[in-house]
Design a protein that fits this description.
The strands form six sheets. Strands 12, 14, 15, 17, 20 and 23 form a six-stranded antiparallel beta sheet that branches. A six-stranded antiparallel beta sheet has the order 13-16-22-18-19-21, with no helix packed on it. Strands 3-2-5-6 form a four-stranded antiparallel beta sheet, with no helix packed on it. It starts with 6 loop residues before the first strand and ends in a 15-residue tail after the last helix. α2 crosses α4 and α4 runs antiparallel to α6. By secondary structure, it is α+β, with helices and mostly antiparallel strands. The protein is built from six helices and 26 strands. The longest helix has 23 residues. The chain folds into four domains: about 100 residues, Immunoglobulin-like (Sandwich), CATH 2.60.40.1120; about 120 residues; about 80 residues, no CATH class; about 160 residues, Jelly Rolls, CATH 2.60.120.260. It is globular and about 75 Å long. Helix content is about 15%, strand content about 35%.
Length: about 475
């Protein structure tokens, strides 16, 4: 009954078992869904979680779920799990305490493991059961092993994916094809070529996106009523290069400000992606959800442009947000003012609508950086395989010398492959069975008569090998399999 109330109370004591510990972080996890939640104890060392509240467990709970609870404190720890039997409530006690996020599995859940092998959790069967925390620890090692064996990440890292920065490849003259080392690739932000001569320092040119404005100077930028633009060179407030632009609303006349620039050269917006990075310290200063908070304008001038709009839900809180526009696919979502020429754009603007005309913004709380686009003509990219082809290598790698490329990209799969889930369960089960037999100093043929858990954890090695053969992706390295383009 995911919607039924269930009060899960935890009392935390110090090592003496009597001294209640206040302001200690306690983490809980539903082993069926892998949902986690955390909170701090009150002055009496108590904390209460309402399992039916979606802010605690997104997927709720139901009778029969196993709830693990964890505490670490000044080098000590406490961790247990309990089976939720009814809708009344649960009260448990932990001796020791403090602040960490409960570890979790990426490719399977504890319930998946127990159900597959038909074994019980320790709290259900103290004689034969397995502690969920132990399954998690072994499972995490197995998941890392799978990553290494397959040369891939099979999850999306809770939606953040896995970052690979400045992966370096040595290139041959006029080499066209490169293979990124970690797959599947989710997105590529930089694919750079070292265009410096052998006798010079490295000089990297990003052919993934062409830079329209580095936002390292305020030159040619202007703001409408109530708006101010200033350069910010504080290292930890810059997203790219040496600076960013503070775009600030200082007056109370209007509720929106347009910050704009006319570029020194034009760019062809057709068949391209346009991106800029926008930082917002407090999204509540923007107009409420359901209205246009940010509008990006691209065109010929302030009277002739395409406009793309973003609700404030698309803007991160106290974070950099990359706002992306794909001309071909997003054209139907754009409004047009005047008669812009998409093949010769040199006007860029960002219009921000605030909560009210009285809203003012602290300097540095809104920032703009790294305005760029790609023409989709310099590179052909296959994200799943990590294959990147420079369409005309003579433009970037024309002669022998210090030819190098480097890439910055995100890696991971949007969802876990079912075969990988099974592989992780099988390898974790094999790990348990192997170590149990080693500890008991008996052979597999003597397993009859042992607890049902050990017998059920028998795993067919051939099944593991079969999945690995299907899913492994040996690194291709930096082989040059194609002839030069002259």
């Amino acid at each position: 009954m995911p919607g039924s109330p269930h009060v899960f109370g935890i009392q935390v004591y110090d090592t003496d078992g009597t001294t209640a510990l206040a302001n200690v972080k306690v983490s809980i996890r539903n082993e069926t869904s892998n949902d986690t939640s955390s909170g701090n104890t009150n002055a009496s060392g108590q904390i209460v979680f309402n399992l039916a509240n979606s802010s605690i467990f997104t997927d709720g709970w139901t009778t029969g779920d196993r709830i693990s609870y964890f505490v670490l404190y000044q080098g000590f720890e406490a961790k247990e799990s309990v089976l939720v039997q009814d809708t009344g409530g649960t009260q448990v006690t932990l001796d020791l305490a403090a602040a960490t996020v409960a570890p979790s599995l990426r490719y399977f859940t504890v319930s998946d493991f127990l159900d597959y092998f038909q074994v019980s959790a320790f709290d259900e069967d103290n004689a034969n059961g397995i502690k969920p925390q132990t399954i998690v620890k072994v499972g995490q090692m197995v998941e890392k092993r799978i990553d290494n064996l397959t040369y891939r990440k099979w999850d999306n890292n809770a939606g953040s994916y896995y970052s690979n920065s400045e992966e370096l490849h040595t290139a041959k003259t006029r080499q066209r094809v490169f293979w990124l080392k970690n797959t599947p690739v989710f997105s590529i932000s930089r694919f750079e070529v070292n265009v410096g001569l052998p006798s010079q320092a490295e000089e990297w040119f990003n052919i993934m996106y062409l830079l329209l404005d580095a936002c390292d100077a305020t030159t040619d930028w202007s703001a409408s009523t109530d708006g101010v633009i200033a350069l910010n060179t504080t290292n930890n407030q810059v997203n790219e290069g040496t600076g960013a632009l503070n775009i600030t609303k200082t007056g109370g006349t209007v509720d929106n400000v347009t910050y704009s620039k006319t570029l020194s050269t034009t760019f062809d917006f057709t068949r391209s992606e346009f991106r800029l990075d926008f930082y917002c310290e407090d999204i509540t200063e923007l107009v409420a959800t359901g209205s246009t908070a940010v509008e990006i304008r691209i065109g010929s001038d302030s009277s002739n442009y395409y406009a793309y709009v973003f609700d404030r839900t698309k803007i991160g809180q106290a974070a950099w947000s990359t706002l992306t526009i794909k001309f071909d696919s997003d054209a139907s979502d754009a409004s047009t003012t005047g008669s812009p020429d998409a093949t010769a754009c040199d006007y860029v603007a960002i219009k921000i609508t605030y909560a009210s005309s009285a809203t003012t913004v602290t300097v540095g709380d809104n920032r703009l950086d790294y305005i760029r686009f790609n023409s989709k003509e310099d590179l052909n990219i296959n994200l799943p395989s990590g294959r990147v082809e420079i369409t005309d290598a003579t433009d970037y790698l024309p002669e022998p010398g210090k030819d190098q490329v480097r890439a910055t990209y995100l890696q991971g799969a949007s969802s876990v492959d079912e075969d990988i889930k099974l592989l992780a369960i099988l390898m974790t089960g094999k790990n348990f069975a192997k170590r149990t037999l080693q500890r008991l100093n008996i052979s597999a043929s003597e397993v009859a008569g042992l607890s049902s858990s050990i017998q059920n954890l028998s795993v067919d090695d051939q099944e593991i090998k079969s999945i690995l053969q299907t899913k492994s992706f040996p690194p291709i390295g930096n082989m040059w399999n194609e002839k030069p383009t002259y």
